[in-house]
Write a structure and sequence with these properties.
With about 375 residues, the protein is of the alpha/beta class. Helices cover about 35% and strands about 15% of the residues. The strands form three sheets. The chain has an eight-stranded parallel barrel with strand order 3-4-6-9-10-11-12-13, surrounded by seven helices. The site of flavin mononucleotide has 20 residues, from β4 and α11.
Length: about 375
């Protein structure tokens, strides 16, 4: 009988000179556990090491601020200083040792900066926080409008502030390269700074950074600054909120147009997310399995653009069918990986690709294989 084709999920993929061993990317996920000065902590090592052990082809490290002011919370990772390079290196070399490629998402939180972690409310820091030693800081944005009712007003970025900030993105890219990172992702989604500049709902500027042409200018300048500081052979991803929500604000057509511009400037893949402006979700796409896959598909099929799909992709067949249907090139997994860091290895077993646990780290696989074969002796040794 003819063998079924091997699943695409476990086919390798090359982009520029980076080859990943499977199509599974751990989606960027902030854990807000940096040392106070944005340096990677032991918790970061443990967090990312588990995904490397778990067999992900690519691990995208969390939103990492290009300047201190651009942190979401005081616990965000940063790459605004050379001192932040060394603490990141053990994470990177461990991922490489386990056969994963590792990226980092560069970010600026804009008007959503200076807040508490989600499990402490995720709201802006205020005087009560200051009394507890957690000083709020001034946020910045395209206009003098809070990101949500009641939040502090951001300071409006002038053209020369923007030029400084664009340089900081470039400098952070150079530091990521020095640290040994394989791929960068620009965080252009979820209502943070770049996304606030892109959306007509939040960017009402009348200068060269506003209007239909000007709203994309910051994103393009950041890509140019990064490409000038990031090696030609290394890939660059851009996470986009492909729509602000259902029939509101930034649209799929806007994304298609921007994605083509970004590809011309040196971006290699669009990581397709959605929403995030403000703190309410009135126009959000309903959270059904694979709820954002159609956005990735639109960019891929209408623009011939390499894309990652993300959002409630949790099941092996679901992930595989997205690839087989040509809806995406990479599958990004977020909470499914929090729940099971060994998701890629378990999925490989589900597809009968690793019956004898040979692809697991041998320190685990040897025992698991014996257990599966019913050996008691090994358990007692
Ligand atoms: C704990 C956590 C932290 C997150 N942090 C980031 C982040 O740093 N950058 C980002 O673009 N998205 C972030 N996200 C969104 C995820 O990358 C992902 O897009 C989202 O969770 C949907 O995918 P999922 O259903 O597989 O979790 C985060 C999500 C979670 C659960």
């Amino acid at each position: 009988m003819k063998q079924p084709e091997p699943p695409l999920l476990f086919s390798s993929w090359q982009i520029r000179e980076m080859e990943i061993s499977n199509r599974i990317m751990i989606s960027p996920m902030c854990i807000y556990q940096a040392e106070i000065d944005g340096k990677a902590s032991e918790q970061h090592f443990a967090h990312y090491a588990q995904y490397a052990l778990g067999g992900a082809g690519l691990i995208m490290m969390e939103a990492t601020a290009v300047e201190a002011q651009g942190r979401i919370s005081a616990g965000d990772l940063g790459l605004w200083s050379d001192e932040q390079i060394a603490p990141m290196q053990p994470i990177i070399s461990y991922a490489h040792q386990q056969g994963s490629k590792i990226g980092i998402q560069l970010a600026h939180a804009g008007a959503k900066s200076s807040s508490s972690p989600p499990w402490e409310g995720g709201s802006f820091l205020d005087k009560t926080d200051a009394d507890k030693g957690r000083e709020p800081w001034q946020s910045v944005g395209p206009v003098d409008k809070p990101c949500a009712p009641g939040w502090p007003h951001p300071r409006v970025l002038s053209s020369s502030d923007i030029a400084d900030l664009v340089n900081k993105w470039g400098n952070a890219a150079a530091r990521a390269d020095a640290a040994g990172i394989d791929v960068l992702e620009i965080h252009g989604a979820h209502g943070y700074l770049i996304s606030e500049f892109l959306s007509p709902l939040t960017n009402t500027r009348t200068d060269e950074y506003g209007g239909d042409k000007g709203r994309v200018r910051l994103a393009c300048e950041i890509v140019e600054a990064i490409r000038a500081n990031w090696p030609e052979h290394k890939p660059l991803f851009f996470r986009m909120s492909v729509v602000d929500g259902i029939n509101v604000g930034w649209s799929i057509n806007d994304s298609l147009k921007l994605a083509k511009q970004l590809i011309d400037l040196g971006v290699d893949l669009i990581d397709c997310s959605s929403g995030g402006l403000g703190t309410k979700r009135e126009h959000a796409i309903p959270r059904v399995p694979g709820f954002q896959v159609f956005l990735a598909e639109a960019l891929k099929t209408q623009g011939n653009i390499p894309v990652a799909a993300v959002g409630l992709i949790t099941e092996p067949e679901q992930a595989e069918l997205i690839l087989q249907a040509g809806q995406a090139d990479l599958i990004a997994i977020g909470r499914a990986a929090l729940n099971d860091p060994y998701w890629p290895r378990h999925v490989a077993q589900h597809f009968d690709l690793d019956k004898n646990f040979e692809k697991w780290p041998p320190q685990y696989g040897w025992w698991l294989d014996r257990r599966a074969k019913g050996s008691l002796r090994a358990e007692n040794s």
